[in-house]
Here is the input.
Amino acid sequence: MKKIILILATILAISASADAKWWIFGKSNDEVGLKYLQINKIPVDETGAKIKLFKETLGPDGTLKLNGKASVGKSAVGSIRISLDDKATWQDLKFADNGTFEYQFKPETGKTYVMYLEVTDTAGKTNKVEETRKELTLSEENIQAKVRETLDALFAAYDSENLSAFMAGVGENFAGDKAILERAVKRDFDALSNITMRYAINNVAAGSQGRVFVSITYNRMVFVNKSGASSQDTGITEFVFDSKEGKLALYSMKQPLVFGLSDASNVATGEVAGNTASNLVLDETGDIGGGMQTVTHTCSGTFPSYRFSTGEKSCGPGLDVWFYDWTSGIGYSSPTQSKGFSKSLYYLTSAEVKDLAGYAAAGSIAVVTGNAYCFHLNAEFYCVEPVSMPSATDETVTFKVKKF
Amino acid sequence: MKKNAALLSALCLVFCAQVARAENEFHASNELSFTNNSVTGAGKSASSLTEGLNYLEVLNLYGSGKTARGWNYNYTAGAKATDDLRNDAKKVSLTNIQGRAANGVHTITAGDVFESFSQYTLATSLKGGSYRFMKDGTKLPEVTAVMGWAYPRWDSVWKDPATRAVSRQAAGLRLKQNVNDGFWAGLSAVSARDTGRINATDPLYNAKNYALDFNYAPMPGLTAAGEYALSDMDLSASAGAARTSSKGNAARIELVGDADPSRVSIEYENVEPDFFSALGAASPDRRKVKTKWRYKYTKQITLTPGLLWYRNNLDGAKAAGTTRNWKPEISAAIKKPFSSRPYSFADLSYKFDRKYGAGSSGADHYMNVNYRDRLGALDSDTNLGYTLYRTKTAVRDAKEVNFNTSLNSRHQLKAIVLKPSVNLGTWYSKDELADETDKLYEYSLGLGLEAPDAALTGDLRFGQNMLRKSQAGTDDSTKSFAAFNAYWRPKLMAKLNDSAIFLRANLNDFSFSTASRNFREKSVTVGINTSF
Here is the structure.
């Protein structure tokens, strides 16, 4: 109890010395002002001083709509005026008896409109006009260019492990929770180094409420600090961005995640439809799993073998697959089936791997280094890409492996 | 020039010029780039670059107009072509296509349709169509209907073998009513049905979500918003799994008081484990309370304390038990901490993570100090962080220190601006359990250049990242890198809305204690982007 009293007393003492009183949230009902103001249905409280709009987020008529309500306490509204040229000229607005008003205009691309609103009651008292200042711009950029700029900034901040720069691109109302994402990304940075990520946009859709949907194909390479090893993965994922102050801010991410791998279940809100590929995950200890792993295994006097589900290595047959030393091939036993692709594991899509056409229970498959070979066993799909095969003189195999 | 890229570029030039004459407004942008990558060294298989010469062509169109009957319309379309399979599994693909028409009351959209209903029901885009009725100045509700497929890309719609996905058909209806000036409420119903399983084990959902959401602003600066949603989901039988059904609910409410000097927010969220939203954004099995108070204590000092608490296992069904998280934090942003230094700025923060239950117990501390200042002609930005990870029992016991500092300056030599910069950083991690130490050192030097008269900008950066590990059997590594970017906007192209010719060159050299892992990447990209 003493502690609580002490904390309260300290807070009160600090508050007393403050410039402003923390408990004052609202304004007096008698003040002349704006009860609310929306620009294209977005409350201006959520926008900030500069509002950049994109053609794709305006209505088909290309107009920008303002609607609001003047508040004058017990008095009545005398006039409402708007200026779009930094107070050089003013235009009277029509308003209803209760103070509601609407205004719309068609902004020119690239031009900045410095907007003020002035409310005057019948006694001649006006609102604080300076507080209504907004800079409105209709961007010359298309929304896809803005998406690329935003994604470039997020990926660059993540690659350079700059937490504050990365979080600057995340919205306050991030659906998975911004605080959880921040901790998860911090843990990512402590676990990984030399992060290299690239992406290409698959799909962009601008929608209502200024939100933008983005689907990307990404590929990344990371070094794991704990083991010193590198790991890679690729996939398709989705983001939703909010449009605020001319910037796009991250609103939600789906699995597979590209950011916040250390707490994927809390950071992601949903999963890309049909995503079942194994993608990178970081556990509590900083170890990495999923994605594409490179495995090197050496035996003596017999060929190396490997179990997909556990990563177990052995020498001689018995595990899921084995790498022959007398011929360039991979052996496996029934009921496992295999299918070969004439391209790298990197380029395989989940759909291709899971297409059962072409899988055969032949017992062995001839391989070429650099190509991918997939195995269907226990209702799971695993693919390997041999980097180097064993020989009679050197029973060492190096291969990449990925679960789909 | 590769065929697909040339075709898209030519399409842009011919089609765009034709349409531009016919429409009220038309814009197009196009970017064509060629990249040559080479990877050498025994460990080259670790590289994520595609070797050889590849192209990437991105085209976007936008147009708008008005019909004689008073309907306004606009459309957007975009396409991409590449022969680098790491950029895309498809050589040519449609990136976006949308058409909208509205007459002031009715709005019809087709193609990429992104109607945000509410967080728990519909917060993703569909390939399909939507209709909206909204008549301003009346008491009639706003009505939105949407129908389509939730594919991540257009190629999935036409079942391309490389990009096909489970087909998720979606339909939704939303009514939104302004009750009075500061209060609106919305009712949403959304259905998602999966078909077209690719793999025998693919989950197929048949889910319905219903939600009531609202926003209430009783006075300037104070807002209450919330949502209550129900889900009814069937998961069809698949290989190795029987059919299951579940019903759940989710609720969230947020109160925000925002007017100087304070912004106070309080959030509560409860998402049941069985709540399922195929098209919304939700983290199932989470009860969360979050508060944040941003307080401008003085004109120079802003304090932001906050608390986040959440737990899982809301139905008590997890055999491992419940995990609870406490995440209090406080930060202080101080302008001019030293009154004699007008550009000084300090940001201090402390964050604490407490996680316990389900056989685990962790207490992590994050402390960070950031200081920015202008020292003569130099802008400096310095960051010092300390993290203590403690996860019992014998899971993680480590302390980490990171330090970064950057110095930037700007010098004008006649018509040329030079921007030299230096970055230094180190990261130190001590694993108490393994008694091992990891150290990372990094530095880079940069030089930016702006020559407005020549319409040229560029920057050069090079440096090294060195990871040094004490643990036997693990590799030390060094990455040496150099990067050069240049953008040239000749006068002719400047008339085309900032169009530019660009060059990007990168060199990354990775060396390890195990020499067979060494490799070197070289990448050069040249491209041109135009827009009008």
User: Anything to note?
Assistant: Chain B has a mean pLDDT of 89. Chain B touches chain A through 133 residues (CB under 8 Å).
